[in-house]
Amino acid sequence: MAVIAAAFVSIARPSFAIPRFAARNSMECIQCHYDPTGGGVRNRYGADVYARTLLSIQGSEPTISPEGSVGEDGWAPEFSGMLTDWLTLGADVRLGYLLAIPEHGPMPNTDPSITSTLFLMQADLYHAATINPHVNLVLDVGVYTGFEAWLLIKAISAPTPYNLMIKAGRFKPAFGVRESNHTIFTRETVGFGPMDQDTGVELTAYLWNLTLNTAIVNGTLGTSFFDTFGTERRTFEKAVASRLSLRLPFETVRLQFGGSLYWNNNVDRQNPIFNPVVPMSAMTEVALGLDELRADGFAMANLGRFSYIADIVFVRDDFHSSMLSRLRAYSSYQELSFLPFQGLDLVATFETMNANLDAKGFAAVRAGFVVELFPFAYSALRLMIRELFASDPNPNVTDVVLFLHAFL
Amino acid sequence: MRSSSLKTAISLVFFTAPIGPAARASDGGPRGEAGTGTIRGQVSYEGERPPVETFRIDVDASVCGARQRISSEEIVVSPRGDLANVAVFLADAPATSRPKQHPSLGQRNCVFFPHVQTVTVGSELAIGNGDPIIHNVHATSDDRTVFNLAMPLKDVDVKRELGETGLITLRCDSGHTWMKAFIVVLDHPFHATTDASGAFEIPNVPPGTYALRAWHERFGMLEQSVAVKADAEAKVSLAFSKASLPEGAEGESALALSRTSVAANAGPAATAPSADVIALREAIRLSRRAEIRQRGRALYARHCAACHGDNGDGRGEQAPFCDRKPRDFTRGEFEFRTTSSGSLARIDDLARTISLGLRGTDMPAWSPTLGRDEIQLLAEFVTTFSPRYAKLDPPPPLNLVPETPADPASKARGKELYRKLQCAQCHGRTARGDGISNTVAAATAARATDIASGRFKGGVGAPAIFRAIATGLSGTSMPSFLGLATQQDLWDVAHYVDSLKQPKGVLEYLFRDSAGRKSVP
User: Fold this and answer.
1) Residue A114 CB: number of other CB atoms within 10 A?
2) Segment B298-305 mean pLDDT
3) N or C: which end of chain B has fewer CB within 10 A?
4) How big is the A-B interface in CB pairs under 8 Å?
């Protein structure tokens, strides 16, 4: 039971961004979020324009005829998270319902009384203050994720296609495609889980359609609430995360390409992904340190009602201990979505993971299908069905999860 | 003599001189009235003559292109230095009556004539087209449309009152990118334009000492003091030179500095309210103002400012990411109106646009998420950004006739009118927005709509098309056709145009829709 609970908790973590919106619109994350790398508190365009008018079914249907007189009463009058000119509140609350199928669950033939459950997947409260046109202060308090707190300094406050921004504080370093479902193979499986905040400084440069994020952080992501330990200085003992993307928004086809690098010189403790190469008897060897490298390449494309996202991540971990062998692995994620009409997304996903990333040494393929409905502004209903095909002799695993999502 | 150091100060009073009496050298007004004097002068250009720019004629060559290349009229200097096309006027004219003139603007062989003229405000400009092709007279002041008239018919004149002072720039949006002319509209009659010999004459000037200004589109402005005595002639000589060019700005751009003082003037069709109407309006405004400022401002900040900017100047943080620049509300210029070309839009017009959005653009429809009161407040608040709305009421809506039956006969008549009115010049023979004018860079023009795609951002169906044809779309190349044909004719054109809309196929649905990223896909 503890194992299943742990599995639930593994799913019951927050998700932060929906990259297919960026793919569909060839948008930058900062168009809808305060954070240049996406996710978290939405800005006034994201919350009060995009979410109200371009996302939901109801937002797509004018309530007056084209030549009619102005207006029926709207359904969502003046409420907004923008409390004042300088203070904005936001929130994400997701409730999940996991349908456990005993013969297709992660632990088949276990306690049959645990069949299905409701769980709180995410509960985050956001605060964003505009100190002046150049400076934003953001605080995110989450039930599961602890907190993020950072300030963002913009070199140019006026709207320009080029800008330079510095983010300082505790945040999630930019890497790859930050898909809303953090359990995908290209996120959690390679060490970028939902609690991947770290403390440091990040520089973001916009040069028309080119965006570069580069951060120096402690490299202790996900291992500590305040991630301030690890001070036995041996070498650099910091992590560098960098992400480069290029948007090509042609009239018909909208493309986005990019790549990321994450190099961490400050890892000295066990990580679940080391399991394939670090036997239990050699756990202490990890404390000697390692060079952890993640590299990815991603692509996004939009054509009409179709959007496509692909991300492939390579892992290279070199342990300082000669007793431990190197870890070389990769995982990939692909997503094809179709928008029959505004407010309904049909998404097919396909993931691969090679054996070196699996604790038991099994390669895996996972296919999924998601139906996401946005009936009203600030709300979503999501049904996800995934099937895991592993080289493991155990039965395939089926995930059936229904999410209710409210956001602001 | 030159006024470069006083440029700003001069510009502020350029078009705001006191009202003056009737007289003008070039239009046959009364001359030599007893007790008045005449200013007679000569304008020249000193120094090496600048090269004359020429343009390649790549549109309507059969009419415009006998010369293959056409010379700019920007600088017309005789061998001995006489400078033509200089507007000369008093900067501090005395108060007097303003008799209306009868100015005209012709178009022949794809050239406007005269190239520069001065006109007393309130005069009616007769615009003619001597060419058998469509011209599109797009008049702008301070980059805002004053009027935009289609001139598809040869030898058919259209008249427009010049109801506001300022510098009007005229261009043709029908692909004749070289066509350009200027009208300097003044609130007194003491003005003239130099002829080919650089000479000018301003008669009937009351005795006194005045600041006389000379403006040239390339060389900028000069100022000279002139003393006028009764029943005498005051001789003046002004000379432009390369050195007289204002720093960093040449003629037209130098004048742009002056237009801030006149930017708030009404459109030509705006009605100047009487004092009691102003008082009543002010009383109503006072009661409404607080609500507009509080709720309207809050609504605007939440839902509009991200694109249109906190100051309404179209420079919100999302603006760099929009396919088209968001509307700059400070200009007080709106495409979709029920008022005449170049006029202010009514609050109802703005509310309709806010409610329905602009199809296929980043402007979403707000009626699903905001109520009638909120949209009305937003429309009113939007007008507060423009000084034009602070001073004048929008004119009443045009008296447009109800839709006529959209039967096959109407569409057939519309097809013939589509040809006769030369709509294809911009929209193309197949209405895909691929007319010859769209293949030529038109400086002030947005691309003509691809009608066949059905993506008309102004609305749906024949009524929206009819309104666009009748009113024109301010700030774009789309002129008003009202007056060139009956409204029934325009309905026929709208029916025909609407019938060109091709049904959306499966492939277009799947691969061409901008679903989820544009308003009302």
Assistant:
1) 16
2) 92
3) N
4) 155
Question: What value of ipTM does the predicted structure carry?
Answer: 0.84
HSE (CB half, 13 Å, CA atoms) of A30? 27
Task: Write the residue in A77, A252, A306 that is nearest to B374 by C-beta.
Answer: A77
Q: Which among A386, A299, A27, A156 has a CA at the least distance from the CA of B518?
A: A27
Amino acid identity of residue B48, one-letter, is E
Task: Please write the tens of the pLDDT for every residue from B47-89.
Answer: 887 777 787 787 788 888 766 677 778 888 888 889 999 999 9
Instruction: State the Cα torsion B461-B465-B470-B472 to the nearest 10°.
Output: 140
Give the gap in angstroms from C-alpha B377 to the nearest C-alpha of chain A: 12
Give yes or no for a contact between B190 and B20, defined as CB atoms under 8 angstroms apart: yes
Phi, psi of B365 (to 5 degrees): -85, 130
| Residues A90, A124: Cα–Cα separation, whole Å | 8
* Residue from the list B320, B513, B520 with its beta carbon closest to the beta carbon of A60: B520
Query: Using a CB-CB distance cutoff of 8 angstroms, which residues of chain A are in contact with residue B306?
Result: 43-45, 48-49
Q: How far apart are CA B212 and CA A246, in angstroms?
A: 57
Q: How far is CA B481 from CA A255, A328, B485, in A?
A: 41, 71, 7
* pLDDT band at residue A308 under the 50/70/90 scheme: very high
Helix, strand or coil for residue B437? helix
Q: What angle do CA B458, B362, A61 make, to 5 degrees?
A: 70
Mutation test of the interface with chain A: which of B291, B348, B370, choosing the one with the most A Cβ atoms within 10 A? B370
Neighboring chain A residues of B294 at a CB cutoff of 8 Å: none
Cβ pair A305:B463 closer than 8 A: no
- The SS3 call for residue A168 is strand
Tell me the pLDDT tens digit for each residue of A240-260: 999 999 999 887 899 999 999
B214 three-state secondary structure: strand
Q: Which two tokens stand for residue B71?
A: 């010379």
When pLDDT is cut at 50, 70 and 90, the band that residue A64 belongs to is: low
Nearest CA in chain B to A343: B516
Tens of pLDDT, residues A280-303: 777 788 778 788 899 999 999 999
Query: What 3-state class would DSSP assign to A214?
Result: strand
Considering the entire predicted model, what is its pTM? 0.76
Residue numbers in A near B368 (CB within 8 A): 53, 58-63, 74-75
| Amino acid identity at B331 | R
pLDDT above 50 (res A8): no
CA-based angle A84:A90:A91, to the nearest 5? 155
| B2 secondary structure, DSSP code | B
Average of per-residue pLDDT values in chain A: 82
Whole-number pLDDT of residue B412: 95
Contact call for A78 and B298, based on CB within 8 A: yes
With CB atoms and an 8 Å threshold, state whether B510 touches A306.
yes
Phi and psi angles of residue B227, each rounded to the nearest 5 degrees, phi first: -100, 125
Return the amino acid letter for B162. L
Report helix angle B487-499 to B461-471, nearest 10. Answer: 130
* Alpha-carbon gap, residue B113 to B132, rounded angstroms: 16
- Nearest C-alpha neighbor of B312 from the set B378, B386, B252: B386
Q: Which of A398-402, B35-39, B152-156, B446-450 has the highest mean pLDDT?
A: B35-39
A201 residue type, one letter: V
